[in-house]
Amino acid sequence: MKLLLIESTPGNATAIESDLVAEGHEVLTCNDEHGGPCRGVEHHADCPMEQHIDMAIVTRTPGSAHTLAEMGSVCAARHRVPLVEVDPADVADDLPSVTVANALASRRVEAGFAAAIRQELGRVAAIVDVSREIDRIHVTVQVPASEGTPAKLSNVADRARAAVREHDQFVRVVDVAVVTYPDPNE
Fold first, then answer.
1. Which residue ranges form the domains of the chain, and what is each CATH number?
2. What pTM, to 2 d.p., does this model score?
């Protein structure tokens, strides 16, 4: 997995980073070589957000204040990257499985996309499923058979795509499939 590791205090995630690399994960950071909070300031292409990130991990002691060093978490949230916070002193308890943590964090992100689509579709009785993949969001919208005309299906697809773009301006590709389900009123 490609992970963005964000330290609230420089050096507090050294052990976590070593463990993640040993498990075969690719670990990226936001801090530049001078200790600044953003490696993309000088050259935007150096920013980790310019590529797909599977999950961002913020290491912060519980109850401590947010710091400028965590600025990458703001960028990750804007890019709808799944995000988890862990206590660097208690990693065994907080992050027992990167795969499980990523699944839970991804589900929250995907639920945000689905909510935006349902909001856009308004009164259409839609069932929305979203999956976040590398460089793309895949959406499946199920609508009642009464909404199954080509014009209505196309309208639902266009509105769903627009909702995704409104929710995340950075998503590169939006795939939308619209299918019908039997109308319960008929």
1. 2-96 (3.40.50), 104-181 (3.30.70.1350)
2. 0.81
Q: Which residues of the chain have pLDDT under 70?
A: 91-96, 185-186
Which amino acid makes up residue 46? D
CA distance 8 to 153: 47
| Res 92: pLDDT | 60
3-state DSSP of the chain: CEEEEEECCCCCCHHHHHHHHHCCCEEECCCCCCCCCCCCCCCHHHCHHHCCCCEEEEECCCCCCCCHHHHHHHHHHHCCCCEEEECCCCHHHHCCCHHHHHHHHHHHHHHHHHHHHHHHHCCCCCEEEEEEECCEEEEEEEEEHHHCCHHHHHHHHHHHHHHHHHHCCCCCEEEEEEEEECCCCC
Based on its alpha-carbon atoms, the radius of gyration of the chain, rounded to whole angstroms, reads 19
pLDDT given at position 10: 83
